Structures are given as structure tokens and as C-alpha cells.
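Bug #77: duplicate submission created two jobs. Keeping one. Sequence:
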Amino acid sequence: MTKSVKIRVSTLNDNTLITSVLRASYPELMRPAYDAKLLEKVLPRITVAQPGLLQSDSYYVAEDAGGAIVGCGGWTRERPGTSEIKAEVGHIRHFGVHPDWIRCGVGKAIYSRCELDARDAGLTQFECYSSLNGEKFYSALGFRRLGQIDVTIFDGVAFPSVHMVADL
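Kept job's structure:
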């Protein structure tokens, strides 16, 4: 079922509300795909809004009719965890949708805005380090799997992920 949302560029003022969405979303959606002990370690780190993303002008929030933030996500030119930039490649970053809004078109609406703005910026491809549970979502958007990878979250803690790409 599709619900109506408004997509807008995030600001630093959205920090607390984005963190709330991520803290509601990630534990519930990741629980079937990951070991509970791993989630206990990584969730405190990955469910916090990243100020750099919020100020990037390429990170977005989805608001419901009342102005509540129900989803977030965006892209950057920099590969996550590095300063590496490839001229025509963008990187999908920190998507999350409140569990009450899953399968309502929120993630797709945010991705559509990412794709539109990235094309306008001259990008021709997106890369994504998807969580295991997110692979189906990204596949439905046209991403193809390159392989499973481990993303280091902190101090050598590896988070199994899927490296994916999509042409824009």
C-alpha cells in the first residue's frame, strides 16, 4: 500500500527525529538477518544520524501529512569510510523507514529523489553496501549484487553486508 509522503533535503535540526526512525527501524528489520550478539554491538553505532550526511544536501527525509519524519536516506560522492571519489559514481547511504511505514513506498520515494538529484549532478552509477535484510529492497530498485562483504563498523567489528550497484 502506498502512502503519501513529502521528500525534502535534511537539515541538522532533523538529527533527533532521524535517529528515532533508525532506532525503530534497524533492530526490527535486521533481527531476522543477523545474530543478536552482533546487533547488540553495532546497533548503538548505526542507529544514530550522521551530521555530515544531514548537511550534505543529498540526504533526505520523508514526512507524512502531519510533518512527522517516517523515513530517511541519501547518497554521497565519497565511498563510505573513505575519502575516495570516482567522478560518476555515488554511494547510497543510511536508508531507514519507520516500521509502521514499511512497504508503503517510502523507501522507493526517497530513492527516486536520490536518483533524480544524482543524475542532475552527472552521476551514472550508484554503489550500495546493503544490509543482508535490505538486499531485496535494493534489487527491486534495479541494483545487482556484486558479492557479500564485511563492513567494519568499529574496532574490527565486521558487519556482513552485500555490495551492490545500479546504473542510473
